[in-house]
Fold this protein.
Amino acid sequence: MRNFIKWITSAKVNKVLCIITFMFVPLALLTVFTYIPFGKMVGFSFYDMKYIGDKEFVGMQNYAEVFSRDDCFKALKLSLYYIVASFVQLGLALYFATLLSFKTKVGGLFKGLMFFPYLVCGIAVGFIFKFFYTRGFVLDTVLQWCGFNLDNLPYWLKDTSINNISVAATSVWRYMGQNMVLFIGAIMSVDAEMYEAAAIDGAGGWQKFRYIIFPSISTIIVLNLILAITGSLSVFEPPYVITGGNFGTGTYFVIMDRLAHSSQKVGLASAMAIVLLIIILIATLLQKLFFRYFIGEGDQEAIRAVRKRKKREALAAAGNGGVQS
């Protein structure tokens, strides 16, 4: 007994027990609130069921229905609006981050103002833009001040030719500041001596961005792009709050919510969630491969650049061999 007490109170054992204890709590929470519900959802996707009542095993029928129903898989087409908006968002964020990373008058104020929308609750942002786009309200009033006639202005939330663009623009306003802050952090970590050397060589702002800033923060650009595109595939708050998914603005998540809670098609909604997960994983993998091939990541050179260099070296070696012979 004394040996056991001595062993259990030793520093080495206490260190191991401390590590196991701190690992157990988060793993237990993940298991209870993530892995078990996910496993249940996978099981639900093979049944025709409601939240309460009997369920019938239908196999892959729910997955086939996801791709055949007009209101399910085709809703993913709306993600294209948000993907385009994410590219605009990242472009603006990178532009402002490049400007604000160097000494700029009232730069701190601009950073705060641009980052503030990200701190606002998504539901609140939805209500803000719901009134912003409402007929005769903020946007229409500002445009009338600029000389536009109200009768010639479209219904920003009802006109199917423009309403998805209007809703997607809210994501640009909300998330641009977050991306900008990440870019600023990455740009600030670049060695200042590289800028000084570039200035001595006569490099301008564009050359500094292209040959110093962009390659140095390529990892953060890839991360932001992955987060932006995966987020674009799972948009929920803007269309749900602003339009309720009406007038052709119902994204994949909005349709999933409608089927699960209004129509009580729990099995079909679960299958939609699994399909979306697979699509996001594939999209993430393709992005990683694209950047790894064309741009590279961190200190790793792009595969395309490596192949070109090896090809040039091979041609040079062949040319030198021909001269010597």
About this structure: The chain has a mean pLDDT of 86. DSSP finds 15 helices and two strands in the chain. The longest strand covers residues 47-48. Residues 2-63 form one domain.
